[in-house]
Amino acid sequence: MNRKSIIWRFGLIGIILYDFFHHKNIWNKKGFIFTTFTCTFIITFLLIGFLISKVTSTNPRWLISLVFLGVCYGVWAHCFFQNKKRV
């Protein structure tokens, strides 16, 4: 798989997760890619929000948006890597 396409689509988080997990058996486990990418996205941006402003990271709108975007990121990664496995 082309590393450049992963970096362009999923950024630093995506390439780190791909490099660390793609050669392990757990990568092919159902739901692993979705869960890993979603949780990593949420935790990363929650920490960034906390470092910038403690108020921002506890704002309900921020948290709901973060969870929504994290799920979208996880679904996107899951669809992308599942399609690459089939090709």
Entry summary:
With 87 residues, this protein is mainly alpha-helical. It has helices spanning 3-21, 32-52, 54-58, 60-86.
Description of the molecule:
Helix 2 runs antiparallel to helix 4. The termini are close together. The protein is mainly α. 83% of the residues lie in helices and 0% in strands. The model has no long low-confidence stretch (mean pLDDT 89). The chain is built from four helices and no strands.
List the helices and strands and how they pair.
Elements lengths: L2 H19 L10 H21 L1 H5 L1 H27 L1
Helix pairs in contact: 2-4
Question: Helical percent range?
Answer: over 70%
Return the structural class. mainly alpha
Number of helices: 4
Mean pLDDT: 89
Give the SSE string.
HHHH
Largest sheet, in brief, is:
none
List the uncertain runs.
Answer: none
Distance between the termini: 11 Å
Radius of gyration of CA atoms, rounded to a whole number: 14 Å
Percentage beta strand: under 5%
Shape: elongated
Number of strands: 0
